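2024-03-11 09:14:02 DEBUG pipeline.ingest accepted 1 chain
2024-03-11 09:14:02 DEBUG pipeline.ingest length=282
2024-03-11 09:14:03 DEBUG pipeline.predict start
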Amino acid sequence: GMETATAPPPKKRSEAEILRSLLENGVAKRFDLVAWANAGCRQPTPIERLLHLFEQCRPDVAKLIVLEELEGTPEEDADVLVYGEIDTVEFTELLNKYGGVNALGGGGGDDGGRVFYDLGSGTGKAVCAAGLCAHFRHVRGVEILPCTAAIASVLVEDFVRDVLPGSRPAGNALVSVDVERGDFFAREHLERWRRADLVFCNCVTWDDDTMTTLSRHAEGLRPGAVFITVLCPLASDAFELVEEVELKFSWGSVEALVHRRLTDEQAAAAAALGAAMEAMEG
């Protein structure tokens, strides 16, 4: 009988390899940062380099990946995880304004440096933007969707290689940048993000139950910590609302709410005042 030659089985590619090729060929062509910089007559600013990096991963493509990941899950039709990206420049300005304050006891990093945390960090863009902000020595994100989190790890890798060098003052380097896949309500993540000095959460479409859970966990932050939500305020007497800022997103403008964690004494006084007001109205 004739021997039929069988092709060797294709080598199984890792998730990271698949995503890397997706970013290189599908989501966008990789760019040569050096050639791009040399083509202009001046060096691009760090934020321009960052925006150029982000062009690799367009919001519409990221949204498709998110929707695909939600197929067949209870969240498929829910708005809980609707994908939207924040305007990088406006977000950076907000971080510059509010990121310069330590929570009680100093910066939350092991080295005393300030920590930024993004809860539901998507493709990692806000984490990278925070990495350019001189207020933070550590920037971290946690994202539950596996492919989306994997894209973030690719983007962060490129950020560290192509954008970060030379983008911060010599004496104030970024020490760590990290995006993890996981549930930010899980204990190991809670313990980490509650050490942060500034937390960001794009909770624009969350329901009341999820906001209540978030608010309860956020009370574990140290006094003085800043917590920025989108559209939905934290439901907690432990926070004061410092400012409402209109921010641009990929789908339109919406309010970002800047909260600050009060001391427990201030929180108790605020709760007592609230109860007294309610009694008067009642």
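2024-03-11 09:14:41 DEBUG pipeline.report Strands lie at 115-119, 138-143, 176-181, 198-201, 226-230, 239-249, 252-261.
2024-03-11 09:14:41 DEBUG pipeline.predict end
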